[in-house]
Design a protein that fits this description.
single chain; 8-stranded parallel β-sheet; 6-stranded mixed β-sheet; 708 residues; 18% strand; alpha/beta
Length: 708
């Protein structure tokens, strides 16, 4: 539809129809029984005029429901403005990929773009038009249940992954209306939800504007530059004001600084939470605060339909601001091609698109394989397929490995660890719990593979923990298995970094599988058998103890730095634990034995007009190939404000066959040294700086250079 016609449509709308257009409900509010509830369902009456002119439906369960809901809606909407159907497609629709934290572990933006396209296409063929993904939140506290929904602790990695997911969902600019395999992306939670106090969902957040611009905005900026159509403000606060009511965040930063011109939509019921937070005494005041701050659509609180009309009558809300919000929603529907065809993703596309087919399952297997991180290997893996394996542990034969936010994925479709191994190994025996520790009972077994970790429902939204260690009964199990004298391989399923300090010594090899999704068991078998090479690298730091969190690699420099090797009083340290993590950001092993040569540079002086090139040779001396993720970190020696020593600036993934050498080149520019200064401008400081090249944030070689 020509955009002038959108304005003509807007002029014809009554105030009630405009308010309805800015409201999203689940199908239950239309008298339907079906519809997934991902929050508390409000108990309130809604006038029919608002239901007839409703703007969006959330979490309809099936293609058939969406067809019928749209058809009924168009019968009653006076201006025939179609609904837009939205849903959380976080890491798959029916075919479930690894949780986003596992996607971050791939360090492979191109792979993630392909994944987003496939999962979005699967959802689109069933009628979904908008997904609430990617979650661009910076996640540094493993107690927070929603770390599983983001791609980790590093702003640069998050920015790359967020942009890739947006591109995967939406495709190239302008094709949404013409390509029914694409859906619109809503980036969330804007901004700083990951900084919740004590890692507890919906808790308070407090950080500076410098931190906002330096750490929390880059991933949102990247997603917006990639074309994200919607932004969802967080439940949490910024400078004492809920993000959903913050004019600073929604107008000054989002619209002016980030240049976002799409629509904003609240999180589930967040406008209603203004009353619980005591910044509004009723629905009318709550609706005023949200609309005037720049919120376009109210998800599931009902505040707009119960408060905006009276707010306008009393002059507290300007109709022109409502018109601006309505126009953005009309523009979204126009970008999706809904005015030309309200059933664009309901017709032939439903019949022809592959849903839960072999192609998408094969890709889910590939992505899962690349997400799994090899944390330890005492020359155990890979295993010969003739070896006799005993599978045990609470998750050894479990199909509950999809992870939170797995949409319409079915556990019955998931491939368990045991099933995956049985497909590739000649002798796989299930060892029921509780297990014996008598070596005689294991005479027919060479290697024990133990499926360990946490339950799916112990991660995700509203699943925060104070203790992130493995359950004690699993530690007891491993100690019992040690008495058998057998080699033990631990496969750990989790939605967060877990504290593994008390089990690392009990295992001969460790594969950290996250929640790997539908094809998880097959992916693990591919790695354990050596059909595939380990590639995953940690997108979050793994602590030694729960009390270390939040812990992340790029903390600002400290005025009283501690030395774990030579601890002393009056330094920033623990008296009962090292400061250093158990496993650092970027860490991950391969099957090959790769040696990093000495980096060489073409010059030691960086200028605005002359970059520096650093070359390093990697030599694989083993009989196994290796996929290396070579990481490049940089940071200025003297800075205007206190800064981390270094931050991730580049990485490259390269496969190095057995017995071969590969040379890698990194280009360092002045932009790699730029950061947000106290005036919120981003620039680089002249003077000395360092570059680190290595396999993780703590395993590197360092170069000292100069920027003039």
């Amino acid at each position: 539809m020509d955009k002038s016609k959108l304005n003509q449509l807007l002029v014809q709308m009554s105030l009630e129809e405009k308010i309805g257009q800015l409201t999203q409900f689940t199908p239950q509010y239309l008298g339907r029984e079906n519809g997934e509830l991902t929050g508390v369902l409000g108990d309130f009456e809604v006038e029919q005029v608002y239901l007839d002119s409703l703007g969006s439906i959330l979490n309809a369960d099936s293609f058939e429901d969406m067809v019928e809901i749209q058809r009924e809606h168009l019968k009653h909407d006076r201006l025939k403005i179609p609904l837009v159907f939205m849903r959380d497609i976080i890491h798959g629709y029916r075919t479930i990929f690894p949780i986003p934290l596992g996607l971050g572990a791939t360090f492979d933006p191109d792979l993630i773009e392909e994944m987003a396209h496939q999962s979005g296409s699967e959802a689109a063929s069933e009628g979904v038009q908008v997904t609430f993904s990617p979650m661009a939140d910076l996640s540094r506290d493993a107690r927070w249940g929603r770390v599983m929904e983001g791609t980790g602790e590093d702003s640069f990695l998050n920015a790359k992954m967020s942009a890739s997911m947006v591109k995967g969902y939406q495709g190239q600019p302008g094709i949404l209306a013409h390509d029914p395999s694409r859906i619109a992306a809503c980036v969330k939670h804007y901004a700083g939800y990951g900084a919740v106090l004590a890692g507890r969902d919906y808790s308070t957040v407090d950080f500076s504007r410098i931190t906002l611009y330096q750490d929390y905005l880059p991933a949102f900026q990247s997603a917006i530059e990639a074309g994200a159509k919607l932004v969802m403000p967080a439940f949490t606060l910024f400078e004492g004001v809920p993000a959903t009511a913050s004019k600073y965040l929604l107008k000054e930063v989002l619209r002016e600084y980030l240049k976002f011109d799409g629509a904003t939509i609240s999180d589930w019921g967040s406008v209603d939470k203004f009353i619980t937070m005591h910044i509004a005494g009723n629905q009318q005041r709550a609706s005023e605060l949200a609309l005037n701050a720049g919120l376009d659509m109210d998800m599931m609180s009902g505040a707009f339909v119960r408060g905006l009309k009276q707010a306008v009558a009393e002059g507290a809300v300007d109709v022109a601001d409502i018109d601006t919000a309505v126009y953005r929603m009309l523009e979204l529907k126009n970008d999706l091609g809904l005015f030309e065809d309200p059933y664009r993703q309901f017709g032939e596309n439903h019949a022809t698109n592959e849903v839960f087919g072999e192609k998408i399952r094969a890709n889910a297997r590939k992505v899962a394989t690349k997400s799994i991180v090899l944390l330890k290997n005492k020359n155990v893996l890979p295993l010969d397929t003739k070896i006799r394996i005993g599978v045990t542990g609470p998750l050894g034969d479990s199909q509950k490995i999809l992870g939170a936010w797995s949409s319409l994925g079915k556990h019955s479709d998931a491939v368990s660890l045991a099933t995956g191994l049985q497909k590739q190994f000649d002798h796989v025996e299930l060892i029921p719990l509780p297990t014996s520790s008598d070596p005689a009972d294991y005479a027919n077994i060479d290697v024990i593979v133990a499926g360990l970790g946490e339950r799916e429902d112990d991660t995700g939204e509203s699943a925060c923990k104070t203790n992130i260690e493995l359950p004690e009964d699993q530690v007891v199990l491993l100690k019992r298995l040690q008495h058998t004298g057998k080699t033990i391989v631990g496969v750990i399923f989790a939605g967060r970094p877990l504290v593994l300090t008390n089990v690392v010594g009990l295992l001969d090899a460790i594969l950290y599988a996250w929640f790997p999704g539908t094809e998880g068991g097959n992916a693990l078998a591919d790695l354990i058998s050596g059909v595939s090479l380990p590639q995953g690298r940690l997108p979050m730091t793994f602590p030694r103890a729960s009390g270390q969190v939040p812990i992340y690699y790029n903390t600002p420099r400290n005025g009283s730095p501690a030395n774990d090797q030579n601890p002393s009083k009056f330094t920033s340290r623990y008296v009962d634990c090292e400061n250093a993590p158990l496993f650092s950001f970027g860490y991950g092993l391969g099957y090959g034995d790769v040696h990093y040569g000495t980096p060489t540079i073409d010059n030691k002086v960086l200028t605005d007009n002359r970059d520096i090139k650093i070359e390093i040779a990697l030599n694989n001396t083993s009989m196994y190939g290796s996929i290396e993720t070579i990481q490049c970190y940089a940071g200025s020696s003297i800075t205007e404000i206190v800064r981390p020593e270094v931050e991730l600036k580049h990485w490259q993934q390269v496969e190095i066959p057995a017995g071969s050498t590969k040379k890698i080149t990194f280009t360092i520019s002045s932009d790699d040294l730029a950061y947000v200064h106290s005036d919120l401008n981003r620039e680089a400081d002249k003077g000395a700086f360092i570059v680190r090249i290595g396999s993780s944030a703590t395993n590197y070689q360092e170069l000292s250079l100069v920027y003039r």
